Structure formats: C-alpha cells, structure tokens
Amino acid sequence: MLNRIFGRFSLSEDLGIDLGTANTLIASRERGIILNEPSVVAVYKGTNEVILDGMGVGLEAYAMLGKTPKNIEAIRPLKGGVIADFEVTEKLLRYFLRKANEGRSMVRPRVVIAVPSGITTVERRAVINSAERAGARKVYLVDEPMAAGLGVDLPITEAQGSMIVDIGGGTTEVAVLALGGPVVVKSVKVAGDDLDEAILNFVRKNHNLQIGPQTAETMKKTIGSAYALDQEKSMEIAGRDTLNLMPRKAVIHSEEIRDALQDTLRGILRSVLDCLEAAPPEIGADLLDSGIVVVGGGALLPGFDRFITENTGLPCRIDKDPLTAVARGTARFLEDLDLYATFLSEGDDL
Ligand SMILES: Nc1ncnc2c1ncn2[C@@H]1O[C@H](COP(=O)(O)OP(=O)(O)OP(=O)(O)O)[C@@H](O)[C@H]1O
Ligand SMILES: [Mg+2]
After folding, report:
1. How far, in Å, from the CA of 348 to the mean position of ligand 2?
2. pLDDT of residue 51
3. What topology does CATH give the domain 2-39+76-147+326-349?
4. Which residues have beta carbons under 5 A from ligand 2 (an ion)?
C-alpha cells in the first residue's frame, strides 16, 4: 500500500534492469527500453579507475575490447550472469543509471533487477548493494525466467503451464512456469560465449588460424545456425596463421560452423530435456499446446526453433525481440509492485 502511494507521488521514474553478462538494458513503464549497452568497462590497467572520466563504459568500452592500448584494459565485470568484480559493476551501474535518468528528476529511482535464478544469497546481496551504492533508492530482485515470462506475455500468475528458455552470453536459463511460479528451473553456464569459443577452437584446429573472440562472435552472428539453412552461406575472415604466425585470410562455410556448434547446442538442449522430464505430467500436457518460447541473444541463431522442435516434439517460438525480453519484463513488474510481490525479493528478505 505504502509502495503504491509512494510510487504514485514519486518524482522519479522507476526503472527495470537486465544486468547481463553481455548486455545491460534499462527500461521503464513510460519509455520502454531506455538504454541497451554492452556490460563492458574500460579501466587503467591494474586499477579500477574508469578511463576518460566515465566515458569508457558500455558501447565505447566494447569498441576497445581486444585492441586496447597497453595501459588500458576492457573488463566484463559480470561472468556467468553473476558479479565477478563488485567495484567495477557498481561503476557500470552508476554510469548507466545516470545516463538513463539524464535530464530528469534528481530523486533516486526504485529499481527491479533481473538475476539468474541459481545465484546464491551472497551474490543476491552483492547485486542489491551495487545498485544501492550506484544510486538506487530501493532495489527489488526478480528471477530472470519470471521476468522473461512476463516480458513475452506468458500467463505467469495463472495455473496454466508454459516454458521459457533464455540463452544469454554466460548462462542459459530454462524454466517451466505454472501455478504462479517457476515449477522447474535449470540454469547452466553454457550459452553464447561458449558458442563463440567453439568457433574459435574450430578455426584454430581445422584452419590453423588464430582468431579473437570478437571475430568468432561476428562469425556466429553472420554465418552461424542451429539447423540447415535454405541458403547456406560463407564468409572471409582474417587471423594469424598458427604455424608461421603471419596474418592470413580464410573462407569459412556455414555448414562447418553448424558442425562446430553442435556439442554446445546439445548442452543447451540437455537442460531443456532435463526440465521437461522433471515437470509434473499435467503441466507437460499444457506444454504440448503452449510450447516453448525462446529469448536472449542466443535465440537469434537461425534455426534454433526447428532444432528444439525436432529434438523435443514441442512447438517452439522465438520471441520477436529476444534481446529485450527480460528488460521488458522487469519494467512490467513496476506496474504493480504489490500484485507481483511474491515474485520480488528485497534486501530484508535475504
Ligand atoms: N544474431 C545473433 N545470432 C546469434 N547469437 C547472437 C546474435 N546476436 C547476439 N547474440 C549473442 O547473444 C548473447 C548475448 O545475449 P544477451 O544479451 O541475452 O545476454 P546477457 O543477458 O547479457 O547474458 P546473461 O543472461 O548470460 O547474463 C551473446 O553471446 C551474443 O553473441
Ligand atoms: Mg540475460
């Protein structure tokens, strides 16, 4: 009740945050997605001091990854969906919150932050502390699968069963939602970064070419797939010959990359199958109709829906804007913090 009164008269805009390993997004009820930048910070090497007085955060810092001058280091402060570097995460959040609030009231916002469902109490506290120190007035945490579910309009407060798969940079979260909560959740540290690594290893072994993670990611986005393409593709890449260490080019085909991604994709599929096996039979029956919804950047891999349908027998839908689903969901919790109270946890609850 107090929340409601305070919320109505509050001068600041409440914000929803998807603090991801690869990307951080901020959304509000009024403005939708306000900010969408890589979770990268450029610091002076050996320090936690952000370069150029805060300019080295997000997009600008991402552009420096892999090619920073000697005294500068571009850091991803989150690993596997959790905070690996507390101080740098706080700086990242401070900069992003300030940017999202630019030209608006000085009142500190209330924020809803999505976190991986598997994280520990200590890790939850770290997220809350970081956000508070970065300028939030009040912090609520919500499990990512619930945020993703609400973001893509699944009936999360109803008995009806549904399934959501979120393939991010560091983690894949799979959840069966029903009866107003997650019935089964699996979180595995197999996701987009591992797909990049599989490509990097494949190119080194099969083409004797050393490439960086950025090139591997570009290849995944350009010619990667999870299922045979109607029109197979190829692309030219540049790297360093592993034998004579000279720069060299090579042409790589989409079929090769699909093969290279198989093991990692099977790892993701395994967690979907585990989740289905663990779901109560009545809910499994619901899923025959409602199927599986896929979100997160990994959902953009062409043919992922067919890969899932072929291996589970269930209908599968890729969300129309999979990279923003979790952030959209966090903003929807802000519509009614009381109604959704059971899904939210605060510092006092931990
Ligand atoms: N077109 C694309 N095809 C394949 N993968 C893509 C595409 N676009 C982005 N990705 C991948 O999606 C991943 C990032 O997704 P997302 O932003 O959902 O992750 P995140 O939320 O930051 O990570 P996490 O949820 O693990 O903390 C990266 O691995 C990126 O390479
Ligand atoms: Mg994510």
Report:
1. 25
2. 87
3. Nucleotidyltransferase; domain 5 (3.30.420)
4. 20, 168
Ligand 1 atom closest to 39 (CA): 22
Mutate to test the pocket of ligand 1, among 323, 324, 326, 328 (most ligand atoms within 8 A of CB): 323
Task: State in Å, rounded, how far the first CA of the chain is from the last one.
Answer: 22
The CA distances from residue 313 to 67, 84, 243, 289, in Å, are: 45, 38, 46, 11
Neighbours of 129 (CB within 10 A): 16
Distance in angstroms (rounded) separating the CA atoms of residues 321 and 19:
17
- Residue-range domain boundaries for the chain: 2-39+76-147+326-349, 155-318
User: Which residue did the predictor score with more confidence, 240 or 98?
Assistant: 240
pTM here is 0.91
Q: Which atom of ligand 1 is nearest to the CA of 326?
A: 21
Q: At 94, phi and psi to the nearest 5?
A: -60, -45
* 318 alpha carbon – ligand 1 mean position (Å): 14
Q: Is the CB of 323 under 6 A from ligand 1?
A: yes
For residues 76-84, give the mean pLDDT: 86
Instruction: Using alpha carbons only, give the angle 205, 206, 208 rounded to the nearest 5 degrees.
Output: 65
Q: Is 173 in the pocket of ligand 1 (CB under 6 A)?
A: no
- Given a cut of 90, whether residue 349 has pLDDT beyond it is no
User: What pLDDT digit, counting tens, does each position of 164-206 carry?
Assistant: 999 999 899 999 999 888 899 999 999 999 999 999 999 999 9
Cβ of 113 less than 6 Å from ligand 1:
no
Does the pLDDT of residue 1 top 80, yes or no?
no
Q: Matching CATH topology for 2-39+76-147+326-349 and 155-318?
A: yes
- Of the listed ligands, the closest to the CA of 77 is 1
**What is the assigned CATH class of domain 155-318?**
alpha beta
Q: What is the Å distance from ligand 1's center to 297 Cα?
A: 3
Nearest to 41 by CA among 51, 29, 31: 51
